[in-house]
Write a structure and sequence with these properties.
By secondary structure, the protein is α/β, with parallel strands linked by helices. Helix 2 crosses helix 3 and helix 4 packs parallel to helix 5. The chain contains nine helices and seven strands; from the N terminus they run E-H-E-H-H-H-E-H-E-H-E-E-H-E-H-H. Strands 2-3-1-4-7 form a five-stranded parallel beta sheet, with helices on both faces. A hairpin with a 6-residue loop joins strand 5 and strand 6. It is globular and about 45 Å long. It has one domain: Rossmann fold (3-Layer(aba) Sandwich). The mean pLDDT is 93. It binds adenosine-5'-diphosphate (2 copies).
Length: 225
């Protein structure tokens, strides 16, 4: 299955996309994580994109296009992927269709995680991430087992630079400006599935499985596991 996740910063895209990729056995491709890794590693791309990411601005489409084309062409994405963070505007949605066309395939579903803006700030301000494995937590809603350290590798969790209040506002504005035409784009093509993202992580997960027609498959995995 080839799925993209849409939704404002903090809606829970990364959290749900990671679960879905595990269930389906396909990679979770997060453009935000790829950019943050490039910045941390100090690559040429990282140096170019740093100013945009830290200001909560979108990285130019031409740079994103190459990044996504290369990643989707890798062998592990041949049988499906969960793409999180791309597309962010209609130009990127068109580019994604072109890339998939070149690869001889197409998108199956675009999932919009729908959430009241008031709840977003609360989710973003409490978000903690593992700088080593990218796992994400929330101070209140999804805390690690031990204070401030990652359950998987014990690394000290950090707050993302762009989750501070000033940048959060810029990101939400950027999202509001660009995103309505993207959801229209997928709605017109019959690919859009809307999931209410205001419940708990497990409630949202169940809604997601329902719209993707995967509820039964997930039950079997739980029974077998
Ligand atoms: P969130 O998880 O809060 O929605 P992301 O991790 O997806 O945010 O993205 C963080 C930042 O990386 C964005 O604010 C933007 O600067 C940059 N970015 C990520 N994906 C894209 C994209 N598709 N186009 C342009 N910029 C992007
Ligand atoms: P996005 O990728 O859309 O920016 P994340 O998946 O990183 O969003 O989630 C943002 C923050 O909210 C994280 O700290 C995450 O642990 C937390 N979170 C995710 N889903 C929920 C939920 N349904 N209820 C409460 N908190 C959530």
């Amino acid at each position: 299955m080839r799925v993209v996740f849409l939704g404002p910063p903090g809606a829970g895209k990364g959290t749900q996309a990671r679960r879905l990729s595990q269930l389906l056995g396909v990679p979770h491709i997060s453009t935000g994580e790829m950019l943050r890794a490039a910045i941390t590693q100090g690559t040429a791309l990282g140096q170019t994109v740093r100013q945009y990411v830290e200001a909560g601005k979108l990285v130019p489409d031409v740079l994103m296009q190459e990044l996504v084309r290369q990643r989707l062409s890798e062998p592990d994405a041949a049988n499906g992927f969960v793409l999180d963070g791309y597309p962010r505007n209609v130009q990127q949605a068109q580019t994604l269709d072109e890339i998939l066309g070149e690869l001889g395939t197409r998108l199956d579903r675009a999932v919009l995680l729908d959430l009241d803006p008031d709840l977003l700030v609360e989710r973003l301000s409490g978000r903690l991430v593992c700088p080593v494995c990218g796992a994400n937590y929330h101070r209140r809603f999804n805390p690690p087992k031990h204070d401030s350290v990652c359950d998987r590798d014990g690394a000290t969790l950090v707050q993302r630079a762009d989750d501070r209040p000033g940048t959060v506002r810029a990101r939400l504005e950027e999202y509001t400006k660009q995103m309505a035409p993207v959801t229209d784009y997928y709605r017109q093509r019959g690919l859009l599935a809307v999931v209410d993202a205001s419940g708990t992580i497990d409630q949202v997960w169940r809604g997601l499985l329902r719209v993707l027609g995967l509820a039964e498959q997930a039950e079997n995995v739980i029974e077998e596991g």
